[in-house]
Protein: Lactate utilization protein C
Organism: Actinomadura rugatobispora
Amino acid sequence: MSSRDTVLGRVRDALGAARGTRVPIPRGYRRRLTGAEAPTRADVLALFTERVAEQRASVRHVSADELPTAIAAALWGREAKRIIAPADLPFGWLAGLEGVQAQADSPVVDPGTLDGLDGVVTGCAVAIAQTGTIVLDGGRAQGRRALTLVPPYHLCVVHADQIVGTVPEAVARLDPARPLTWISGPATTGEIELERTEGLHGPRVLDVFVVED
C-alpha cells in the first residue's frame, strides 16, 4: 500500500458513514444593503465611490459625453504613451486621444509586449458598492485576463447601472463558467516583511470612471 492509499484510507475512516452526504449550506446572510446603509440609489453609487477610494484607487464620476475627454486627460496625467484596449471597446471612448498610441488587443500580443505598454483601458461586467470591487468576465469591452494583469496601469469604465450593493447581488449577475477577475484597488501584497507593496501581480495604478448615463 502506498502512502497515498494510507492517507486516503484514514480520511475515509474519519468520514465514516457520513461521507458523500450533502451538507446543507446556510443561506441566511444578507443579500442586499439595508436602508440604513444606502437608502437610495444615489447612496449606493456614493458608497461604491467611497470604497474604491479606500482601496487607493482614483474614482471619478462623468457623463457619457464627458467620457472620451476624461479618458484622454487621465492618460495624459499618467504620462501613458502606449496603451492597449479590447478589440470591442467602444470606439468613442478613445476618440479624444492625442499623443497616445492605442492598439487593439489580438491573440498575437504576447505577455512581453503587454509588459512594455503603459496601460490598458477596459469596461467591466459588474461592480460592488459594499466592497469597492470591480469584476471582469471577459465580456464586451473587457478583453482577456492578461490585459488587466500585465500592464502597470488600468483605467476601468463602470456604468452606473452595473453597480450593485453586495457580493451576492454581483454573483447573481455573473456566469461562474466565465473567467472572472475581481479587482479591489491596485494589485497589492503585504507578505513581504508585512509591508504593503503594489504592482507585484497586476497594475500598480487603477483609475475608475463611473459613467452616469
